[in-house]
Amino acid sequence: MMTVEDWAEIRRLHAQEQMSIRAIARHLGIARDTVTRAVNSPAPPRYVRPKAPSVFDVYEPRVRELLKEFPTMPASVLAERVGWQGSTSWFRKQVAVLRVDYAPRDPADRLEYRPGDQAQCDLWFPPVMIPLGPGQSGAPPVLVIVSSYSRFITATMLPSRTTGDLLAGMWELLLTQLGAVPHRLIWDNEAGIGRRNRYAEGVAGFCGTLATRIVQLKPFDPESKGIVERANRYLETSFLPGRTFTSPADFNTQLTAWLPVANARTVRRLGGRPAELAAIDRAAMLALPPMPPATGFHTRVRLPRDYYVRVAGNDYSVDPTVIGRMVEVHADLSTVQVTCQDQVVANHARSWGTAATITDPAHVDTARRMREDYGRPAAPTGSDLLRDLADYDTAFGVDLPDQGGLDDTNGEVA
Q1: HEC secondary structure over 284-336
Q2: In this structure, are strands 194-195 and 198-199 parallel, antiparallel, or unpaired?
Q3: Which residue, 198, 186, 188, 184, is CA-closest to 219?
């Protein structure tokens, strides 16, 4: 059979050297019919192996029947239904060839992103254990927000995936790292944001303050936020290796220091660096609002006798002088503050663990003094509580007539 090299040489000799077919055949030692075919063929020769009979041919009609009725039936189930006894991998390859004739098509459009239009949001759970407190460790979620146009990455670790922490995390990233507000924030069906086309409590107010819109994607639609999914993998493969963390604060410190390096890389798809393209993005985004949105955890409770309030599974002490009064509890990503009538009665660093009791020694000392005062009997005032009954007669204007004389000795009338 004529090779591609022979075909190329024959055409060169015929076109450039102006050699005849007879001369080429004599020069290369090839039959003249072969030379003629090479001269007349515009494409190089290609070997095509004739299709040989296969043991799968016997099972193919039944497999097609099942695929026609059940296009998504797994190959392992098909093999069981048709009684296949041969190689599993070979059967799977043959089914894959046939399945395209019956499976529904799910095309994915190539998306184009306008500057400032959207940022994709997601939670990344790093596969590392981080100390959270005495005897506790875990892997808190990392909120990742990536601007779709510039691929500018922002990220921070959160104490939890509750609505208050998600909103506080988004505001912190938009305020401190991105510096502007995209027109749309793309989320999947995260429960802390909302479910079934309904926002979680507080999300609508957050969007209204920022004048933006949160768009939640339909289930099983990962392509629509593939940019942030790739950023999650990039964080896992480029940021985590070789690092150790002593606390969530240490994790955020190292992450914040590394993000400028990540945003200075060249993205081949864009032909530029996210840090440079971010300026175009910010110019088309919305400005930050003059007033910060309501974020974090809020509640109003009556302070019980044990003078502790619970926030995210942890108990925090409060000044016991306000026992029995209504107090306002607010927690952001780093602090827990309690106020009573606009007066701060507790201020604690937020615990990232669970079932912890955080106590201010000053509160314990105040409670001790209050218990001592409560158990001590009240001192007498020294005032005479006995009054002459005639004083009441005078006060009410009662003038009693003389009853005749009373015997002071035995109280009888004389």
Answers
A1: HCECCCCCCCCCCEEEEEECCCCCEEEECCEEEECCHHHCCCEEEEEECCCEE
A2: antiparallel
A3: 188
Kindly compute the dihedral angle of the four CA atoms of residues 272, 273, 277, 279, in this order, to the nearest 10 degrees: -150
Q: Which residues of 379-392 are buried (b: 16+ CB within 10 A; e: fewer)?
A: eeeeeeeeeeeeee
Distance CA 152, CA 154 (A): 7
Reference 165, options 198, 135, 192, 131; nearest CA is: 192
Cα–Cα distance between 312 and 159 in angstroms, integer?
Answer: 9
> Which residues touch 151 (CB under 8 Å, ≥6 apart)?
227, 231, 267, 269, 270, 274, 277
CB atoms within 10 A of CB 295: 23
| Sign of the torsion angle spanned by Cα atoms 229, 235, 237, 240 | negative
Three-state SS at 84: coil
Q: SS3 helix, strand, coil % of the chain, rounded to 5?
A: 40, 20, 45
What string of pLDDT tens digits covers the 414 residues of the chain? 678 888 888 888 888 888 999 999 898 888 998 889 888 888 888 877 777 888 899 999 999 999 999 999 999 999 999 999 999 999 999 999 999 999 887 776 677 899 999 999 999 999 999 999 888 999 999 999 999 999 999 999 999 999 999 999 999 999 999 999 999 999 998 999 998 778 999 999 999 999 999 999 887 776 788 999 999 999 999 999 999 999 999 999 999 999 999 999 999 888 999 999 999 999 999 999 999 999 999 999 999 999 999 999 999 999 999 999 999 999 999 999 999 999 999 999 999 999 999 999 999 999 999 998 887 776 665 555 566 667 666 766 766 665 554 455 454 444
Q: Which residue has the tokens 């910010």?
A: 282
User: DSSP assignment of 10-68, as one string?
Assistant: HHHHHHTS---HHHHHHHHT--HHHHHHHHH-SS-----PPPPP-GGGGTHHHHHHHHH
- Give the H/E segment covering residue 130: strand 130-133
How many residues does this entry show for the chain? 414
Contact 309, 338 (CB under 8 A): yes
